[in-house]
Write a structure and sequence with these properties.
It is a single chain. The chain is an alpha/beta fold. The two termini are 20 Å apart. It has an 8-stranded mixed β-sheet with strand order 3-4-6-5-7-8-9-10, with helices on both faces. The protein has a single domain, classed as Rossmann fold, CATH 3.40.50. The chain contains 8 helices and 10 strands.
């Protein structure tokens, strides 16, 4: 990754998050953004990895924003180069843990590479994942969030970004991690303004092994409907995404003549790019980041 990132050492265990009030109409914008975004890493992995990467905002314009989606205002984080210019857009889709500092850091990493990054908080209506006490509560929340609502909010982020004077509205990509990787596949079959997508270890089968009204389709169901080139990054040792499922997706994409590529990293677990987690694999993450930038460079900058 770029040389202006630094590694933060010596972080101890992360405490569980206490219960806080859900967002209400009486909360200020600042209180809402802090409540949803600042609680950070707590539920994702326990102790924060000593290898966590922190990307400086020097040379960037960064900040919390609100994106209109239907009748709602969705909190989001944006980052772009401070230098005058026009930049391709990357919409970042967070993990099940919501919009916390790791996702914000990824937005800054993309901005350092010459992109305008926008990362929406997709659990805003449900109060966010940051207030929840354990992973079971997070999964219960995620189970209630309809795919159609998420896709609507992601499309709203595309419209928001594309309307900015510094954006290139005809060069928009999307990338997401874990749950966000799953949504990346779905979004690539939904949003016609996308020119490229990168899915990081996104589940390909039905969400949590079942279909329901909130999650009626899986990535495997939509292979024939992809509207843009998609790059998938997977770990061979991912216990939640079998190698056979990845190979099945490859076969479907090939059968439908889709522009797509899936990479399998031997021995890599789920979440190998999450530098704040014990599952982080530095060398794999470095290679995956290079490949992701190559994909976006080809389809958004080429």
């Amino acid at each position: 990754m770029r040389s202006d990132t630094r590694k933060e050492r010596g972080r101890g265990p992360v405490n569980e998050i206490g219960t806080v009030k859900q967002p209400t109409g009486g909360m200020t914008r600042r209180e809402l953004l802090i409540g949803l975004g600042a609680t950070g890493f707590a539920l994702a992995a326990g102790p924060v990895s000593a290898d966590r990467i922190t990307t400086s905002s020097e040379g960037l314009v960064v900040g919390d924003i609100m994106v209109s989606s239907g009748s709602d205002k969705i909190p989001a984080y944006e980052a772009r180069p401070a230098s005058p210019g026009h930049y391709p857009v990357v919409v970042i889709i967070h993990e099940i843990f919501g919009l916390h500092e790791y996702i914000r850091d990824i937005a800054r990493r993309f901005a350092k590479e010459g992109y305008y990054a926008v990362a929406p908080e997709l659990y805003f209506r449900e109060g966010g994942a940051g207030k929840l006490p354990d992973i079971q509560a997070v999964l219960k929340l995620v189970d209630t969030v309809p795919d159609r609502q998420v896709l609507q909010d992601l499309s709203a982020a595309v419209r928001y970004a594309g309307a900015k004077s510094w954006a290139l509205p005809d060069r928009v990509g999307a990338t997401g991690f874990c749950w966000g990787g799953r949504m990346t596949w779905l979004f690539a079959a939904h949003e016609r303004n996308l020119k490229a997508a990168v899915a990081w270890y996104g589940p390909l089968g039905p969400w949590r092994g079942r279909r329901d009204d909130a999650h009626p389709e899986a990535a495997l169901d939509l292979a024939h409907q992809l509207l843009c080139p998609v790059f998938g990054l997977y770990g061979e040792a991912d216990e939640g995404i079998p190698v056979s499922t990845v190979r099945e997706m490859e076969a479907k994409l090939k059968a439908h003549h889709k522009t797509a590529e899936l990479v399998m990293y031997p021995g890599a677990p789920h979440g190998f790019f999450g530098d704040y987690r014990p599952t982080y694999r530095a060398e794999v993450a470095k290679d995956a980041w290079k490949r992701a930038l190559g994909w976006f460079g080809k389809y958004l900058k080429g």
